[in-house]
Amino acid sequence: MQQNPRAGREGDVLAVISQGGATVSFFDAADDRLLGAVEVPAEPHELCFDPTRRLLWCTTAYRSGYYHANSGRRTELTAIDPDTRRIVEVVDLAPEHGPHGLALDTTRGRLYVSVESSADRPGGVVVIDTETRRPLGRIDTDAPGPHWFAIDPEGRTGYATNKEAPFVSVVDLEKGTLTTKIEVPGSEGLAVSADGHQVYVAAPYAGFRDPGKRSAPGIRVIDAATASVVDTLPTDDVVLPVHLTSRGTLLVGEVRMEPDPSSELGRHLPGRLTAFASDTRERLGELEVGLFPLTITSSPDGRLAYVSCVVSSTVSIVDLETFRELARLDIPRTGEPGAHGLAYIPRAA
């Protein structure tokens, strides 16, 4: 008899951002009960949980809107206690702005935050000391909009995907310098393999206004040693989020649209969660989710996937062994947009 995928999750929590509602909601991972919510500076985007200090980090990128259509960039990074569900501190990164992607090095106590360019500096990555919660410096990525950021398991190399720039920026985290650029046709989400040998990058950039000019969508497989694209995992539609589970399952969120005379961008169709085996690169399956999947995370055991969909403001909870949807959470929002950043928070020891 197959084990209940929810068994043993009592005390674990799923945190979900409501981008338009400017909140972080907390759900019981065993039974999906809403435990409470924290109001944060508008407009929150991504989450990252630090298990060492039991802090939940939240970026606030824009006053309203999204990457290429916003009312101004914000500068805040918020630290939240997920157990008491209270804000510990709001860190102002000014003059840096548009913080978005987050990557954590627990060994060195470093949090990396991608930030957008300004008139006097290119986009880059701000380095935060997780003990003092203060910036230690920044690393230039030589691109206007480094939106997603990931590091290798050893904490020595970082990768920034750039929506409009035709390359992935590779940075040396110890020296704090840009080392190389890997050619891809604009890029979105990414993930680094557990051994650090491969990087999986969603490309091209999801610019929906000129779909005829885009290259074929898929996941570019980058060999870290040679800093080159060695393969492409094809997808039917453009991909934004990319996530690698602890079991080595590569999860990607495909955004599906169809032409609509009343809208320049088109009409949203249900999105798709697609899974690949990272070792064999075999396509394992696919599943329909909500509208516009934007963030993916998984449970520490790699059994469950969580897919937030910003237009429908839902989170799909997926059993990765049977590849079926167990539940769909409705995330409260005020206007648009809806569900965005996710973090799985194991119970305190």
UniProtKB/TrEMBL annotation:
It comes from the Bacteria. Signal peptide: none annotated. This is YncE family protein. It comes from Streptomyces luteosporeus.
